[in-house]
Amino acid sequence: MKNYKHIAILGGGPSGLFMFKRLVDLNEPEISIAIFEKSAQLGAGMPYSKAGANDEHITNVSGNEIPELVTSVEEWIQTLPQNILERFNIKPDKFNDYKVMPRLLFGMYLTAQFELLQKQAEEKVIPVKIHLNNEVVDIIDRPEDNKVQVKLAEGQVFEFDNVVVCTGHRWPKKSEGKIPGYFDSPYPPAKLEFKVNHAVAVKGSSLTAIDAIRTLARHNGHFKDSDNNKFTFELAEGSEKFKIIMHSRNGMLPAIRFHLEDPHLLKDSILSEEEVEKNKADNGGFLSLDYVFDRNFKEMFKEKRPEFYEIIQNLSMEDFVTVVMNKREHKAAFDLFKAEYLEAEESIEKEESVYWKEMLAVLSFAMNYPAKYFSAEDMLRLQKTLMPLISIVIAFVPQSSVVEMMALHEAGILEITAVGDDSEEEPQENGGAIYRFTDESGTKQEQYYETFVDCVGQPHLSYRDLPYKSLVDMKTVAQAKIKFRREEKARKALETNDKVEAGNDGNYYLNVPGIAINDNFQVMNSLDAVNERIYMMAVPYIGGYNPDYSGLDFCEAASERIVKSLLPN
Fold first, then answer.
1. The pairing of beta strand 500-502 with beta strand 508-515
2. Could you write out the DSSP letters of every residue in 215-249?
């Protein structure tokens, strides 16, 4: 064993699964793999296990859209026992890879894929050690030995040549557990399985908010199909005053899942290293956001949608976003939701994409990896202008969620309130929270809610939130930051933005969330020195350099880059 390259994968969820698959597929005879998972289940991670889902929660992707694993979802469904099929109301003869599915069922699929990969590793005589119910609490880099130590909650310490951090989602608790009726996130959703007889505030309108809504609704009433195919909701006795009020920036609901013309187009959309370097050379050392917008969005319409290209070819990024947002803002949220639902249904029935939305997903994925090369000016434009639109359009809300939300709205149970960027909640010692915001008319509002659920989605965490304190204390990792191109722009931003700072080198920088990493996801210190032993694939801690991460597609693409760096031969 002494000649083996010992590799640790921290986290056995979807990220760890794709990392494990890459290593097994290599047929590399001189590696050993250890996988540390804090739960008892491999593959599912947080989104597809009880930590992130109940039976009522649905995936927003179908089997044909996920990267290749060992067997397809459709093949796997045919192997399931009757009790599982009945639990999730699955009919194998009517199921295909174009259907979304319950998230817990999808988690079982991912677990099965992990088991198949373990068998492949065994056949290839790759040593694999699985550590279930083992939480990693620290990572200690030992550059003098060219090793990395992994410390578990129970005190054991293991040593490896390389560590890949794949720990996935994390919602830090701030007031939850201390303040009754206050929830820092809706996860695990079992904590929302309660009955109330008052209005519940939900902060956000994303898929995270929809998760909370689906659970709360089921414990305060029931959905039913009427004889004329009308889907309705009725309150339960004792919940007559139950109501859910979503508070959404700009008062918008996310877009709805439609037919994708090419569900695997994302992987072919990333700019080549040569293309990035050429544009940087032509743009003062920075990658141009406008270039990426033109290259990975506008130009995609030239051949397949030339009539649309004619409309947008001379629009700047800001102009395009303004046009789209104005169309959404000038319609009542649920009216637009219903119209987009009909559009999405037609798209699926005719197998025709809503192409501009599909291309926006491509743009989001394509700009994610080279975003660290934008100037701070472009990063601020991205954060302010494009990301709000992307977060709405590429949510791909499953149809069953839409039907439930419309039924709740029509029953007078679900409302949406537009809030400004300055909205904030103040947890109250006796329970709940006061929510303060500016409404659409510019009027300051203040409302107390006995129950408050923060549903803004996975937060981008600071590098100081990293749970592996030795990495921070020993300065193995550093704050992610992006340089300003022009001093006058930086000085102006410095007046209003506390994330702007002057560097010791005379340049100005924008501090962005998380830690600094290179293109291979290797961590970097404050001197930009690359650490060849530690890879960071945990999305909450790399949100500054990867502003939008796209689920399983992200897992596949990131794991490919890591493996090519880890085992270049």
1. antiparallel
2. HHHHTSEEEEE-TTS-EEEEEPTT-TT-EEEEEEE
Q: What gap in Å lies between CA 256 and CA 373, rounded to an integer? A: 32
- For the record, the structure tokens of 199 come out as 């209005």
Q: Is the distance from CB of 504 to CB of 477 less than 8 angstroms?
A: no
The owner of tokens 């102009």 is 319
* pTM for this prediction: 0.94
Task: Indicate whether 2 pLDDT > 60.
Answer: no
* pLDDT, tens only, 391-435: 888 889 999 999 999 999 999 999 999 998 889 999 999 999 999
Among candidates 100, 16, 104, which has minimal Cα distance to 61?
100
In this structure, what is the dihedral angle of CA atoms 341, 343, 344, 350, given to the nearest 10 degrees? 140
Q: Are 148 and 481 in contact (CB under 8 A)?
A: no
Q: Measure Cα distances from 102 to 63, 71, 221, 319, 471 in Å.
A: 12, 18, 21, 39, 37
Q: Which residues of 93-127 are buried (b: 16+ CB within 10 A; e: fewer)?
A: eebeeeebbbbbbbbbbbbbbbebbbebbeeeebe
Q: Position of tokens 């400004």?
A: 420
Q: Which amino acid is at 171?
A: W
- The mean pLDDT value for 484-511 works out to 95
**SS3 for 317?**
helix
The tokens of 549 are what?
């991460």
Domains in the chain, CATH or no CATH each:
5-170+551-566 (3.50.50.60), 182-254+405-454 (3.50.50.60), 266-393 (no CATH), 482-510 (no CATH)
CA distance 335 to 320: 22
Whether residue 188 is preceded by a cis peptide bond, meaning omega within 30 degrees of 0, is: yes
Q: What is the secondary structure of 108-124 as a DSSP string?
A: HHHHHHHHHHHHHHHHT
Measure the CA–CA gap between 254 and 188, rounded to whole angstroms.
22
